[in-house]
Amino acid sequence: MPKVTEEHRKGRRREILGAALRCFARKGFHATSMSDIIAESGLSAGAIYGHYASKDDLIRGVAADVFSPVLSELRSAPALPEQPVHPVDFATRLLEGLVAAVGNTAILVQVWGEAAVDASVRELFDTVYAQVLELNRQHVSNWLSATARMPVEAIEEQSLQLARLLTGLAQGGIVQTAFVDGFDVRGYLQAARPLFD
Amino acid sequence: MPKVTEEHRKGRRREILGAALRCFARKGFHATSMSDIIAESGLSAGAIYGHYASKDDLIRGVAADVFSPVLSELRSAPALPEQPVHPVDFATRLLEGLVAAVGNTAILVQVWGEAAVDASVRELFDTVYAQVLELNRQHVSNWLSATARMPVEAIEEQSLQLARLLTGLAQGGIVQTAFVDGFDVRGYLQAARPLFD
DNA sequence: GTCTATATCCAGATAGAC
DNA sequence: GTCTATCTGGATATAGAC
Lengths: 197, 197
Description:
The structure is a homodimer. By secondary structure, chain A is an all-alpha fold. Helices cover 77% and strands 0% of the residues of chain A. Chain A contains nine helices and no strands. Chain A has helices spanning 3-27, 34-41, 45-51, 55-75, 87-102, 105-115, 119-147, 152-179, 185-190. In chain A, helix 4 runs parallel beside helix 7 (119-147), helix 6 (105-115) crosses helix 7 (119-147) and helix 6 (105-115) packs across helix 8. The radius of gyration of chain A is 20 Å and the shape is elongated. Chain A starts with a helix and ends in a 7-residue tail after the last helix. Chain A binds chain B through residues 25-31, 106-107, 109-118, 122, 125-126, 129, 161-162, 164-165, 167-173, 175-176, 178-180, 187-188, 191-192, 194-195, and chain B through 25-31, 106-107, 109-118, 122, 125-126, 129, 161-162, 164-165, 167-173, 175-176, 178-180, 187-188, 191-192, 194-195. Chain A binds a DNA duplex through helix 1 and helix 3.
């Protein structure tokens, strides 16, 4: 199989996934029909089913697609002990990057809802959550190590607690970005700065 | 119309709503069929449709039902300037009360997802959000007024920012309660205490 | 108000030509 | 790979007896 074909295939899949995402974002998973997605994509039923086996398959694809920007952000944000970044700045970068990448935060909230009932979406959530929490923990730990005079065990414990807080703050930021017009993520997070100083 | 009848009617509606809620919590809105709800309720199709006009009607009913504990909590938690409560303690009470009342936080996340695409559920969300934010703001403001030496305008501004933070923290707490086994809401929020001291 | 039985429709999914 | 045309099942919702 020639190279072009393979790339075309991937492109088609992205096209279809994009159409599905727009429909889901607009009407939600249960109110969106395959016909909606077919119409939105400008393709035909056959074309869709040639790439995705079912509606559930599309939902999972979209869910994965929505989570992937988070993971990319994470990968581009290693926690370096040598150059500690203020945890709030880190979280701001992560959250702003995510919002920019996903564009539509409403779909993110919907995917959370799906994660609550679908095992495979749940797995995606768990993976991302674990990584976010761990990276937050590392950043907090690095920061406290560099700036606070505390015994190592205290830092360990504090870091985990503060990482959970930071993670929750980010999640709440996503909810408010989705539902509050003109919500200012940056200002929102800045208010948490004193926690780490 | 005699009194008993009216009460019976209400009871039946609650029964049906309870069955619907259990189904939705288990399988989600789109994977739950009316047959599922009918079976879960132990009643018949006719009985259900005698009380709720459609599946969407049930979804909205469940959404309202899920939000109502939040509102009850709010009503039972007035913000008194004379006896300021530490904002974290207030938020803890609110969140623990909510978690206890709803029982199933997974359904809450799903309702958020629905709010992202259904106007009438969205309205419910907006109402609750506005009230939570305002009550948080009042509590923070009272607390800062009593404990911090700041000019009034600074308190006003700080209060709103911190209220948004507290609200986001609560939302993140709901997400983590829904998805993290054995998540300790109380400990989670306590870590935010320094923000107000 | 509730039941059983059933109508109706449209969803998701496929077949086969090109 | 994609299209058109179509199947099939199950979903929502109703009718009419009790």
